[in-house]
Amino acid sequence: MASGAFAESGADLELVGIQKRFPGFTAIEHLDLTIPAGSFFALLGPSGCGKTTTLRLVAGLEDPTEGRVLIGGKDVTKLKPYQRPVNTVFQSYALFPHMTVLENVAFGLRRRHIADPLGKAHEALRLVELDHLATRKPQQLSGGQQQRVALARAVVNRPALLLLDEPLGALDLKLRRQMQLELKSIQEEVGLTFVHVTHDQEEAMTMADTVAVMNKGEIEQLGAPQELYELPRTAFVANFLGQSNLFTGKVTGTTSSAITVDIEGVKIIVPSKRAQRHTGEVTVGVRPEKLHLLLKAPKVDSSVNVLGPGRIIDVSFSGVSTQYILTIPGIGKVTVFQQNMSSGPLAHEGSEVWVSWDVEHGFGLADEPAASPKFSADTDTATIALQKKQALMSELEEA
Fold first, then answer.
1. Cβ(250)–Cβ(280) under 8 Å?
2. pTM of the full predicted structure?
3. Dihedral, CA atoms, 37, 40, 45, 46, nearest 10 degrees?
4. Residue 289, class by beta-carbon neighbours within 10 Å (0-12 exposed, 13-18 middle, 19+ buried)?
5. What is the three-class DSSP state of 150?
6. pLDDT tens-digit map of 21-57
């Protein structure tokens, strides 16, 4: 791939006290965020959590109710979208069907009267390995190729920030995984700052240097993908970023290195450094793939936690692993992912089993066990429309 003209670094992004309210609901409650220049940053969260609204605020497509947006240290909050050093790649590629691939990529350069637009467009196409298709029309390309053209069209303008709004959502699974690796490779080569919005956990963890998990307009946790997965701070993060088995109980003992939690009469040990709270009622957890499924009760070992006996109620084969769901009296359901090392399942529905895991694999959450939501759920679209209608009728009556 070519580098040369695409070696410029991006700018850092800073969001200060951002709040965004729409009639009837809050999209972003309070957001402070700093994204270093040249990084690949992912905003991860479910639909309606505020991640796309955040991206639109950065792009200038929405105005914040409160707060400031700074790019490279410059306050751009009041600037129009075209005045910001930002380009966006959407899920719908929005290519001009009547233009060739080369003309699509060069379009923005021509509008800005940049010298040698075709030469720069060829260079951008070489970057995404599509220069050999420069004379084709978009409809003659596959979905993955159109995605790369859209990326080249954005990169060629050398924005300080490249915003990616669910850009791989329209691709099939195999192509999506291939594009994840290609996007990361391109970002490393061009040195721009990528801000990627997605609800796909695997996508965020595969590509991003840093991931921010959003929930109800706020960032619940921010950090490296491995850190978020291994040490989630809240129940939301623990269950949105993969799956977790969570248990609530009272701390009955502490040492300099661990806490002991009573889970319905069973003692569970969690390392102090992996637990957010060390006293009172706490929630602790372990990932399903960390569990070992046992057909008989194991010997007592202070370095291992054990739950059981329980009964398997569901067995699901998924190729690489088999998922077992079991119920343990007084504790409830527990999920286990067991790697498929043999030709058949380790146990069957109705089997009596135990589960164990190394103490070092457990974690403790910062949540209060009965934590309440930060603010009320979003109002539905019909209610918002009715509110707007009522407000308009009031204005007309006053006039």
1. yes
2. 0.80
3. 120
4. middle
5. helix
6. 998 888 998 899 999 999 999 999 998 899 999 999 9
Overall size of the chain counted in residues: 399
| Chain-centroid distance, C-alpha 178 | 18
- Going from N- to C-terminal start, the domains of the chain cover 4-229, 243-364
The 10 Å CB-count burial string (b at 16+, else e) for 243-254 is ebbbbbbebeee
Residue with tokens 């701070």: 233
Amino acid occupying residue 19: Q
Q: Which CATH number fits domain 4-229: 3.40.50.300, 3.30.1330.60, 3.40.190.10, 1.10.443.10?
A: 3.40.50.300
The H-or-E segment that residue 312 falls in is strand 304-317
Question: Which is it for strands 161-165 and 193-198: parallel, antiparallel or unpaired?
Answer: parallel
- Helix segments in 137-248, DSSP class H: 143-155, 173-190, 201-207, 225-230, 235-240
Which of 129, 179, 122 minimizes the C-alpha distance to 156?
A: 122
In whole angstroms, give the CA distance from residue 90 to residue 99. Answer: 19
Tell me, rounded to whole angstroms, the distance of Cα 171 from its chain centroid.
Answer: 18
One fold for 4-229 and 243-364: no
Token pair recorded at residue 336: 């286990």
> 243-364: which CATH architecture?
Beta Barrel (2.40)
Token output for 179: 């594009």
Q: How many CB atoms lie within 10 A of CB 131?
A: 18
- For residue range 126-140, what is the model confidence (pLDDT) as tens digits? 888 899 999 999 999
